[in-house]
Amino acid sequence: MPSRAAVSRRAFLGSLAALAALRCRSAHAQDDLGPMLRRKIPVSGEEVPVIGMGTWITFNVGDDPGARAVRVQLLQEFFDWGGAVIDSSPMYGTSEEVIGHCLAQIGTSRPLFAATKVWTPLQMFGAGQMEDSRAYWGVERFDLMQVHNLLNWEGHLETLREAKAAGAIRYIGITTSHGRRHDTLEAVMAQEPLDAVQLTYNILDREAEQRLLPLAAERGLAVIVNRPFRRKQLFSLFEQHPLPDWAGEIDCANWAQFLLKFVVSHPAVTCAIPATSRVDHMQENMGALYGRVPDAALRERMIRYVEAL
Amino acid sequence: MLPFTADILFSSIAQYNRALWPLPPVALLLGLGAVLLTLRPVRDGNRLIAGFLAAAWLWIGIGWHMLHFARLDFAAPLYGALFVLEGLLLLWIAIRGRPAFRYRGGPAGWGGLALAMLALAWPLVDRLAGLTWQSERVVGLAPAPTTVLTLALLLLVAGRTPWHLAIIPVLWTLVAGAMAWILWIPQDLALPVVGVGAAGLLLWKNRRHAAHRSRAPRSG
């Protein structure tokens, strides 16, 4: 199986120091590349790490004991690197049950930011589904509850607002993915009192830059980015090519970090939620939580580089 | 987009087979018996064949799709409903005791027997594809081999095959083929070919039967 961490010799040398530090981080040492990258949730000022974790497919492993054990390792690694934001949904099969299993195995002392969604056509089932999710995760309350893919968003936002007022959840939001229904998403963002929005954004799918990300900034919404790797497609497209020489300037030792740093360096983005089922890939992803981030000029250079591949 | 991987699918099948043990070998023997009944008809054999198929589709719809796999796949209840519908259609055939399932040679008969052997040998196909014996899918309990056996037995119907019985099995071969492509389950890529091929043979068989009837001398 090809490694997604296809690193050219020059890029590797350019980021050698960064890699060494990342290895130390992986070994849970305290010396590091500097402070963890965090962003504020605009509505509260609360800071969260810019790299979170998605659970679509990767945590839907049912009762398979071997696969569950790997997910425990995965989550342990995520927390060890300083991760906090975990996102899931009732749509993701047993993912929420498996998250709960992992959290119970690891212990509750971790700084978890629990985010899930409500996904049911009828508003009357929303509250029960959210309670089921809470029981699966084993958390006292969710930090963020989102309306999944805008499904019955009018009804569910009413329920979410009530739950937030009652203190059962801290933030509310809406989601979309694959670049679908951006017009509706924009209208809801403009009209409804929300705390967060989740959408697809990556180095090739940049439609959100046109209207949604500026609107989120204007409305003071946190932005969670899904599909930062377009699932695995961006690795398939790029991994046979070397990283540019200048990748070391932003402390990127592999393509995962290059792609994630592009996403989280957008000023309106709060957090990206890559998903993985492999511990080595988790280490690569979480490396993007440290080091320098590209400025606007370098972001343009990153786009030009991948578009020329 | 499917919310699970092939590894988890087969891990779930292994768990299902373990929970049902010793039903997998029993179901395989019942499937073999249904095929043998088309070769050596006995009294109420048609009811037994249709009854076995009905029980298999109902069980897979409820036991596999709705109760077991729905935890992993949000679409499983929909698939389960289709399987239950097919099971009810077959149950009605079992109650009526007709049409008759009988091997009579010819392209439809040969095709039916070939598909029946493929369905019964599905555990071997899975083994050759690299799966462990616990994950092997058995006719009567798993969707793919049961669908293939159903199409096989519909090809072995004496006279005209009721079309409505073939719609859901053919549809399932297409759905399962798409899943096989997405998850990369190479042995299941044969399913759409089986479905379309069986549909073509059924069409040919029914037209041939209609032509025979129109040429038959009228009495009275």
Structure write-up:
The complex is a heterodimer of chains A (309) and B (220). Chain A is an alpha/beta fold. Chain A is built from 12 helices and 10 strands. In chain A, strands 3-4-5-6-7-8-9-10 form an 8-stranded parallel β-sheet. Chain A has a two-stranded antiparallel sheet with strand order 1-2. Chain B has one domain. The longest helix of chain B has 26 residues. Chain B is globular. The model of chain B has no long low-confidence stretch (mean pLDDT 95). Classes of the chains: A alpha/beta (309), B mainly alpha (220).
Tags for this entry?
heterodimer, A: alpha/beta, TIM Barrel, eight-stranded parallel beta sheet, 12 helices, B: mainly alpha, 72% helix, 0% strand
Summarize the structure.
Chain A has 309 residues and is α/β, with parallel strands linked by helices. Chain A has twelve helices and ten strands. In chain A, β1 (38-40) and β2 form a beta hairpin.
Find the biggest chain interface: A-B, 13 and 13 residues
N-to-C series of helices and strands of chain B: HHHHHHHHH
Rounded average pLDDT of chain B: 95
Which shape of chain B, going by the Cα principal axes?
A: globular
The beta-strand count of chain B equals 0
How are strands sequenced across the largest beta sheet of chain A? 3-4-5-6-7-8-9-10
- Text of the CATH class of chain A: Alpha Beta
- Our count of domains of chain B comes out at 1
Instruction: Provide the number of structural domains of chain A.
Output: 1
Residue-averaged pLDDT of chain A: 89
Figure out the total of helices of chain B: 9
H-E order of chain A:
HHEEEHEHEHEHEHEHEHHEHH
Helix/strand-derived category of chain A reads alpha/beta
Enumerate the spans of chain A where pLDDT stays under 50 for 5 or more consecutive residues: 5-24
Annotated CATH topology of chain A:
TIM Barrel
- Helix coverage percent of residues of chain A? 40-55%
| Beta-strand proportion of chain B | under 5%
Query: If you compute it from the alpha carbons, what radius of gyration of chain B comes out, rounded to the nearest whole angstrom?
Result: 17 Å
Distance between the termini of chain B: 61 Å
Structural category of chain B is mainly alpha
C-alpha-based Rg of chain A, rounded:
19 Å
